[in-house]
Write a structure and sequence with these properties.
The structure is a homodimer of 221-residue chains. Chain A has 8 helices and 7 strands; from the N terminus they run H-E-H-E-H-E-H-E-E-H-H-E-H-E-H. By secondary structure, chain A is of the alpha/beta class. The first copy, chain A, has a 7-stranded parallel beta sheet, sandwiched between helices. In chain A, strand 2, helix 3 and strand 3 form a beta-alpha-beta unit.
């Protein structure tokens, strides 16, 4: 039975890959930089998105896709910022896939966007296996989760373009060794950019905004 | 293709259920209370296990099964406590299943144990779907993850016997509303026990130890 499962899973991943490429072509045609944001539950993805919208709009036209097992808690916070938002609820699911993103794109004003932020389901494992058609993958780690996460969840960190280390403001109360964390990440992925930040105090976020604005410019060029 | 996947998945869950019952029968025959501990990455499962071993041994004979995607970081910490330990690594996997536990049981001295602690893979979604044969399910939430977790990951909390709220020591630095969290949990699961604790300072752990010792006594009776 286990071999059957693997076969089916390969089919799913293959079909997902095809759909992801279609999504990316469509986003490219509209010049929309698309970022897939992944993390553990409660690492601060929604706070990062709210900070990013606040800093970048109105010059940058942003939309958001929110992936959750249940609830619209995060989508409601983002909705208050007045940007287009699509909530995807996946009861029993543990990740977004390219089909879900296609459905969301059908419901977004693509001709009026520069940046699409996708908040994936809070999960450090399964989302890493499913391309959505994004241009960049961002992992949001957080200091209270501990500095051993890249060693314990390697795939997620191997495939990241940027790793943000959030909740810097809690560092004085934790045993988090940032050097040990960064060595774990760069050991897997030497080209990755690592930005230590606090989405609560704003510390360090300017380097994230600056990287993001560069990517948007490049996509429009 | 999606319907095929669901069919296969039901078969997996059905086969897992059968194997889980076999595991439980075997554990019952030896009078070993078995606890499945689940949480997000970095909520403090290993710290809880270390504190529990320290408090309960040598009167209680404890063994541990460690589930991880990669690494033996946690198993090495537990190994230093001198208790029997089995590490299960699941590259590409996101949860333990009953077959893996059967293999681990084959390698543990069952006639010499009172308590088996299973540390599941750090993931608030997938592990909830797979019975291992455990007698009780424990969810370890942590304050920096935020008080909205029961609303966003309902299945995990619906099926818990105990919810521990860890990292109480960080509360002064967070916006965590414990009433909002507890209302979310009891709304899904009125019979659940909720113990606020700090595995770092030891605060609140006595009620957890006391609950656990009662369960062990009951299993032996």
């Amino acid at each position: 039975m286990e071999i059957k499962v693997l076969t089916i899973k390969e089919d799913i991943l293959g079909a997902n890959e095809t759909k992801a490429r279609e999504n990316q072509d469509r986003l490219d045609k509209h010049g929309i930089l698309t970022i897939n944001i992944m993390s553990s539950p409660g690492a601060g993805k929604t706070s990062l998105i709210l900070q990013t919208i606040n800093r970048l709009k109105p010059e940058t036209r942003v939309a958001v896709i929110e992936g959750d097992v249940a609830s619209q808690v995060d989508a409601e916070k983002v909705h208050q910022q007045g940007v287009p938002i699509i909530q995807i609820n996946i009861p029993g699911g543990c990740h977004l896939d390219a089909n879900m993103i296609e459905n969301a794109l059908n419901n977004l004003p693509l001709e009026e966007l520069d940046l699409l932020l996708i908040e994936n389901v809070g999960n450090l494992i399964c989302p890493a296996e499913f391309d959505l058609g994004e241009h960049k993958r961002v992992i949001l780690a957080s200091t209270p989760e501990g500095d051993d996460k890249p060693y314990k969840y390697p795939l997620m960190f191997t495939e990241a373009d940027v790793v943000l280390v959030n909740k810097l403001d809690l560092m004085p109360h934790l045993d988090f060794q940032i050097n040990h964390f960064c060595e774990g990440v760069t050991g897997l992925n030497p080209a990755v950019k690592i930005f230590p930040v606090s989405c609560k105090t704003g510390e360090g976020l300017e380097q994230w905004f600056s990287w993001l604005l560069d990517q948007i410019k490049e996509k429009k060029a």
